[in-house]
Specification:
The complex is a heterodimer.
Chain A (H helix, E strand, L loop, with lengths): L1 H27 L4 H5 L6 H11 L5 H13 L13 H36 L4 H15 L2 H15 L12 H31 L1 H9 L3 H29 L2 H6 L5 H10 L3 H29 L1 H6 L8
Helix pairs in contact in A: 1-4, 1-13, 5-6, 5-8, 5-10, 5-13, 6-8, 7-8, 8-10, 10-13, 12-13
Chain B lengths: L6 H10 L8 H8 L3 H20 L36 H37 L1 H15 L3 H12 L3 H28 L2 H8 L4 H37 L11 H8 L8 H28 L1 H4 L1
Classes of the chains: A mainly alpha, B mainly alpha.
Chain lengths: 312, 302
Amino acid sequence: MLRFTLVRLGQAILVLFGVATVVCLLSRGSGNDAELVAPPDAPPETVAQIEKNLGLDKPLINQYFDYMSDLLHGDLGQSFAYRTDVRSLIADALPNTIELGLCAFAFAAVFGIAIGVRSAMRPGGWTDHVGKGLALAGQSVPSFWLAILLVLVFSVRLDWLPPFGQGGWQHLVLPAIALGAFSLASLTRLTRSAIIEVLRKDHTVFMNAKGVSPRLLIVHTLRNASLPIVTLAGILLGTLISASVIIETIFAWPGVGQLAIQGINSRDYNVVQGVVLVNTTIFVILLFIVDVSYGLLDPRVRRASRGVASPA
Amino acid sequence: MVLPVPLDAVTEDALHAPAEEVVGPVSRRRRRRWPWFSGTILALFIFAGLFGPYITPYPPNEIDLAASLQPPVGFGGTWSHPLGTDDLGRDILSRVIEGARVALAVSIAVVVIAGLVGMAVALIAGYRGGRLDAFLMRTTDASLAFPVLLLAIVVVGVYGPSTTIVIIILALAFWPSYARVLRSEVLHLKTMDYVTMAKTMGGSSRWVVRRHIVPNIVPTLLVLLSLQLGLAIIAEGSLSFLGLGVPPPAASWGGMLSDGRRHLNDAWWMPTMPGIALSLTVLATNLMGDWLRVRSDPATKR
């Protein structure tokens, strides 16, 4: 188990390191930051001075080490557009992103698992058909189109919910649904197939034959089927928090995704880099937790990581 | 990887889901029938993609401010612009057709490049085994955790949007799924008697792989390609929607949806038409992928 955890930890750190390196090299290749900071009509001496202040006159390798050491100290640099610390900008926006991500996740998890369980209990029943339709639609309708559709129907036509911005719970409904729909579809499908697989196992058939009540049967089945569901749910949570860029842009939700897009539009690369790094970190940490908990729950996973290639 | 969709989870779930629970003669026959709905839509999509420039009623980027924001037929519009016009008076039908060309080109390029890379990795890792296998699979796992959408933001922020960048970024996001699924297939095939025999008879690795392994993973590859085509179309749409994808004035569906956002109150058809085209196409590729999967699964074939 320790070995398994260490391997995964090493991988997670490697990914973070790789992302930081790529981000650093890309942004250094992007042209002169000093010209962005300086006023448009600044004389070349001023630009050179700014360049020196920012450390841009050093060789690339030194810049890279400076950047990495700043990162390790938690310093994400300055925002050119806001003239403040990138770290504080992200600290302000991140709670909003997490709030939206958690709401979308709750929506997807509750409905996805409920529909999945019911579909699996009665394959071919009406819940199953509705579930199948929902799953298919959820995987075919991209989130940005669903978001626009929801706004068109519920805000523009019916005027029930606000089309954008932040405020009461009403502001969360549409973005959470748009963001969570795809996850809902995946969870429904996976829950259904995981439970059907357990229902086919001998021990479940035996319990059923013995006359165990359906209620108890569901409890037992769900526990046995929970592994893949928990894994997918963890991955989805990571995805929801780190990839809500599109939904945040559509609903003008003041999260980190919107910060990143604004950063691109104003060529404020430090902000973009900061958001990318923070989001990657969150995603990698969540993935790590999922992996390790999966190893804790299922001994077979641990064994497979011992260098012996598993057959499937 | 961080796309708006967790690719790997989706693909693997789709590949391993129980094919058909209610196995009876009726359902089996129904499953094997040619999928008319998705087949027709896909045929239309490919036709529009290939012959778009010859069938669009107007040039897709022709601006006609006198005819701006005309509603579609049935909602007060005329047949001169069946799906209406956008805020610059461009014909939406022509732009939807042109969008099909963009979506088709990008998604095919992405799945083919990703499929070839993934297959190469799977063959080397699966057939060689040992340390090389361990190394390649660790790399694959790590790539899956790479935040591709976020990377796209940085790359495009730096170099500006371009179709080539979209294809490269998406191919980077897509290849690990192929590598993982196909590798397990290769591992399974390697234990087959005919492969052992081919090796015993002195066949070189290269020959065995080409003659006995590759032809047998092609069906799985095709299923994966079709399942990922839909995801690639969605991903391209997402990037274009954010302004990180195919640069304007090219008519990509994602970009059109983004333009339409400004006119939710006065021109609902502007985002709706490309949205419908996008969802129908993705729906059709998903249905086709499911159909192929069931068909290529020996357990349900008989």
